[in-house]
Amino acid sequence: MLDNMASPAELDALQTALGISFKDVALLQQALTHSSYLHENPGTGFKDNERLEFLGDSLLGFIIAEDLYRGSPDLSEGAMTRMRATLVRRETLARLSQSMGLGNYIYMGLGEESSGGRAKQSILSGTLEAVVAAVFLDRGLDACRDFVSGLFVENPDLTADDGATDDYKSRLQELVQASEHTTPVYRTVTAEGPQHEREFTVEVSVNGHVIGSGRGKSKRQAEKEAARAALDNLPQE
Length: 237
Description:
Strand content: 5-15%
Distance between the termini: 57 Å
Shape: elongated
Structural class: mainly alpha
Number of domains: 2
């Protein structure tokens, strides 16, 4: 990338990847500008993305909280809090940024780049937060909602990690303990396929009765799917 800046063609490609056509491309450029770039290139007239990062962090929390509230009416406050924390944490946002190749477009100083800046979780997550804010300022709240929701819907493998797994299992445990005064038991039924492509089947039972089963590429993923199935099978108050 010439002079560590995305070219107009590259900015067009990024907008296509984001699914957003900016009215004011300068907002997108600001969202991509790390402070290290301005330290090495004073007088460019650019602003760094730190204020946008602040706004984007709040927007992500709000939009995800709203999605959880509207889309998961049976989740408790504690479960929603844990799931939101998982989705907005640095590691999750960094993985989403990497999936879009966002690090390739960041304007950063040569010193920061030479130290691996384009792969740093703090920079990747902060840049994504800034992009969310830029979408909001450029296109409004509805477009920002669609953009954020799309990030998580289109990348379930990147966001459904241990935290999300624990939410299904925690919710199931809360319900079972309240109604049966015991805890669910998970049992691996099968482990099929070669070592590098193993698929597990797990059953979850209560008092010896199977209430759900699930499959996944890890035992934890299979347990999550079993807990999800059990929640679907349990009568809801």
